[in-house]
Amino acid sequence: MPTTTRELTAIGETIQLYFDGMHHGDTARLRQAFHPQAFLFGYFNGKFCHDSLDAWMKEVADTPKPIDNDEAYDMRIVSTDVSGQVAIVKVAVLYLGLRFTDYLTLSQLDGRWQIVNKAYVHD
Description:
Order of helices and strands: HHEEHEEEE
CATH class: Alpha Beta
Largest sheet: 6 strands, mixed
Strand content: over 45%
Helix content: 25-40%
CATH topology: Nuclear Transport Factor 2, Chain: A
Number of domains: 1
């Protein structure tokens, strides 16, 4: 099935929830973007990290919010690859003065695109 503009728009809306949730430290927006059983894996300061969604939500809630520190909103989609009901979106994110590259795996579940996995590296 070819990817439609409607699918790309829906994926973009999920990624926008992710971006806004990160910038505002808004776990409600982030929970809208992520599947409840999502996992996060990546490298921060060279150390391998992995978290459940709930553990990461606590970390986000306990961390200063970028918007409160007048941090520039510097987040963008680098690439999107869609195959049927699965997508990989590479994003560049500025978060608390640090640059991240995230690879977000999304699945279309119950007619809605949700992030099911996040793999990241801190530049």
